[in-house]
Inverse folding.
């Protein structure tokens, strides 16, 4: 059974968003998503400072059987990326909500967070 | 013998299952204006014997002229063993090696091919080949636009000294994807791309700069300065190279301070005969950091569960059968047979042999140019060093001279007036290692005769 922590917000395209800390949120992919993809072998991240559009393609997670786009759940500017994933993409499999985070975004519009799903909403959307 | 395995009954059952009356109805949505209908001008069918007779009559029309034309396709000696081996059934009929456990031979040959191309170009990785040199460049341009994340412009600088057919093919393949090819002029005295002409683009958003070596005129470009300019301006450097020339020239991996990012080219000079334009094959190599943006097949070396060395297609998540519309390219195959021949060709020659071929081509062309320019009114058009081709200016119509030479069994070069009218009566000549002294003397004698008429 995939983990869906209650304190996070979600997109139906399987990204999670942390609560806001000084205008910045952390973003990753859900436990369910990493489980469906299988062992990750490569993660392509946006560049720090890059402007992100709401629902725009911003990263790629590649497993031995598929490569999937990650869509930004919010608009804003990339504040930081998880450099550790360059050498250790398996962190996403091992700890999707912790060390396997993908990137942090300085929000352009905090009200966008209101449109995201809560844990129950995501469970329903992802049918888990 | 029918090659379609479905019987009439099979077809009827399938149509009934989907509720369609006949096969023709499946094509209903194609408007009649787009359908060619019956082919009215097809000649009557011939027997195999008649076709063989026709083909041999047509082939005889070519005669056996001495070929001094290069311009992207080169008449090199191919050791007899190359096609004797490449024509073996195991290589000749093999299809894409998806099933690694049944395709170790094919996969190992392609792995060797990639290893040789990496050694030749000085790059980190190679794919298992593409269709031809021109489409390889178009793929390299598309790849550069994807890979250069600092650039948003989709603008590519492409020198006019690059093969005109490569420029046309690339234009056709990228123009509907919003990519702009900006042409760079060449220096009229040197026949090269003067790095100074790039100054006007300094600081602009350019995705990549294309650098031919040697260029279409046979002239050596200032590859170090061009590569460094590209990197200083946040553009990728794409080398378009002749693989034989790389045996004696600095490889793209060593151009400038950081080396080219992508290099590609036509593989025909490595074991493929001049055969009415094909099949040839393209090659492409790149830096390790860009490998996930590379199109085409890549074969990797690994170990199986028992620790034995084995080969398999790798990084397939880039490809169409996995990544669908987000694939790096629609290329989901390679020119396996031509790459196999090239691998055998390179293995037979070795690095020393390939270097001797390159040196002999260079020497022969120098010798030919000396003989031809001793004639009144024939002179080299450009003053910079060349590899194995040179542009010569003639005192009379190039077109007419080449026709007369051809009637005398000498293919005396390529008329450049169609693609480069500004050069006047200019021809591009080439003498590979196959051209011998008596052929060159014969060419000189016949040209002299034509010019003195």
């Amino acid at each position: 059974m995939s983990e869906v922590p209650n304190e996070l917000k979600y997109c139906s395209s399987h990204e999670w968003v942390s609560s806001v800390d000084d205008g910045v949120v952390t973003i990753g992919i859900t436990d369910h998503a990493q489980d469906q993809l299988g062992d990750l072998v490569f993660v392509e991240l946006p560049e720090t400072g890059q402007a992100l559009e709401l629902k725009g393609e911003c990263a790629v997670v590649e497993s031995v059987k598929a490569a999937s786009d990650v869509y930004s759940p919010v608009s804003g500017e990339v504040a930081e990326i998880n450099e550790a994933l360059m050498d250790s993409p398996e962190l996403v499999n091992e700890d999707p909500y912790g060390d396997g985070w993908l990137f942090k975004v300085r929000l352009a519009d905090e009200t966008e967070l209101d449109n995201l799903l809560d844990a129950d909403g995501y469970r329903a959307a992802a049918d888990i | 013998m029918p090659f379609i395995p479905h019987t009439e009954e099979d077809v009827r059952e399938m149509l009934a299952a989907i509720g369609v009356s006949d096969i023709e109805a499946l094509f209903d949505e194609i408007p009649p204006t787009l359908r060619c209908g019956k082919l009215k001008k097809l000649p009557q069918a011939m027997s195999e014997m008649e076709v063989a007779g026709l083909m041999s009559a047509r082939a005889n029309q070519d005669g056996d002229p001495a070929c001094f034309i290069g311009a992207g396709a080169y008449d090199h000696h191919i050791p007899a063993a190359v096609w004797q081996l490449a024509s073996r059934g195991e290589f000749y009929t093999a299809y894409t090696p998806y099933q690694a456990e049944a395709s170790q031979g094919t996969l190992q040959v392609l792995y060797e091919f990639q290893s040789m191309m990496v050694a030749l170009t000085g790059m980190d990785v190679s794919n298992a080949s593409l269709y031809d040199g021109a489409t390889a460049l178009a793929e390299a341009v598309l790849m550069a636009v994807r890979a250069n994340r600092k650039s948003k412009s989709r603008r590519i600088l492409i020198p006019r000294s690059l093969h005109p057919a490569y420029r046309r093919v690339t234009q056709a393949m990228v123009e509907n994807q919003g990519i702009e090819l900006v042409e760079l002029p060449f220096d009229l005295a040197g026949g090269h791309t003067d790095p100074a002409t790039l100054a006007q683009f300094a600081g602009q958003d350019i995705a990549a700069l294309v650098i031919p070596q040697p260029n279409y005129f046979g002239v050596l470009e200032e590859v170090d300065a061009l590569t460094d300019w590209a990197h200083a301006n946040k553009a990728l450097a794409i080398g378009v190279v002749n693989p034989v020339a790389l045996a004696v020239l600095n490889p793209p991996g060593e151009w400038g301070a950081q080396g080219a990012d992508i290099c590609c080219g036509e593989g025909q000079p490595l074991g493929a005969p001049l055969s009415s334009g094909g099949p040839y094959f393209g090659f492409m190599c790149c830096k390790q950091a860009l490998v996930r943006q590379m199109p085409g097949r890549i074969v990797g070396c690994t170990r199986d569960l028992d620790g034995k060395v084995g080969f398999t297609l790798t990084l397939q998540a880039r490809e169409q059968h996995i990544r669908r519309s987000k694939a790096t390219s629609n290329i989901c195959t390679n020119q396996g047979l031509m790459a196999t021949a090239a691998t055998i060709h390179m293995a037979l020659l070795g690095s020393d042999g390939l270097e001797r071929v390159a040196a002999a081509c260079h020497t022969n062309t120098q010798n030919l140019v000396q003989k031809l320019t001793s004639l009144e009114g024939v002179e080299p058009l450009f003053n910079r060093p060349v590899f194995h081709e040179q542009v010569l200016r003639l005192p009379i119509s190039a077109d007419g001279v080449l026709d007369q030479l051809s009637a005398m069994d000498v293919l005396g070069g390529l008329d450049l007036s169609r693609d480069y009218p500004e050069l006047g009566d200019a021809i591009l000549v080439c003498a590979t290692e196959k051209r011998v002294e008596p052929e060159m003397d014969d060419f000189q004698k016949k040209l002299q005769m034509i010019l003195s008429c």
